[in-house]
Amino acid sequence: MGALGINLGSLIAQLAAFIILLLVLGKYAYPPLMKTLDERQMKIREGVENAERASQALKDAEKRVEGLMNDARLESQKTIAMATQAAERLKADIERQAQQRGREIEQQASKRIEQQIAQAKAELRAHVADLSIAAAERVIGQSLDSATNRRLVDEFVSQSRDSLC
Fold first, then answer.
1. What are the residue boundaries of the structural domains of the chain, listed by start?
2. Which of 154, 148, 152, 150 minimizes the C-alpha distance to 125?
């Protein structure tokens, strides 16, 4: 081995030192190093699993939120429909009340008109009676007593009214 430039004593000593170093490292350094690597690998695996679980939880939460949004939309549509129906009923009630009030006003106005017509007829009769008395006094040339004149004219007007009305 001398031709190769290898010193056998030195080689054995280096080989023994390497084997001792390998045994010491294998016994004391390698297990903690492997343990640290295993722990790190386990943490990374847990992180990936947690990320997958979080992603799945997010998807589930998004589905729940979408379901809640759909439920809220349906509920709001129902509420709007109910409010619309209530408004329609209220509108119909108001229209019915307005029509009823209009009929009442029309009836009251009709009664007032009838009263005014009756009053105008009475005033007209009184005026006709006064004119008739005045005309009769001029024709007769004398004045009859007022009560008798009034009675005669009222009878005449009543007979005329019955024949005209």
1. 12-164
2. 154
In this structure, the number of other CB atoms found within 10 A of the CB of residue 128 comes to: 15
Distance CA 153, CA 133 (A): 7
What distance in Å separates the CA atoms of residue 29 and residue 108, rounded to the nearest whole number? 114
Look at the block and give the residue holding tokens 């007829």: 121
Q: Is the Cβ–Cβ distance between 149 and 133 less than 8 Å?
A: yes
Instruction: Evaluate whether 92 touches 116 at the Cβ level (below 8 Å).
Output: no
User: pLDDT tens-digit profile of 25-40?
Assistant: 889 988 998 999 999 9
Instruction: Specify the amino acid at residue 53.
Output: R
Number of H helices, E strands in the chain: 3, 0
As given in the structure block, the two tokens for residue 53 are 């679980």
CA–chain centroid gap for 39, Å, is 59
pTM of the model: 0.44
Residues 74-124: tens digit of each pLDDT: 999 999 999 999 999 999 999 999 999 999 999 999 999 999 999 998 888
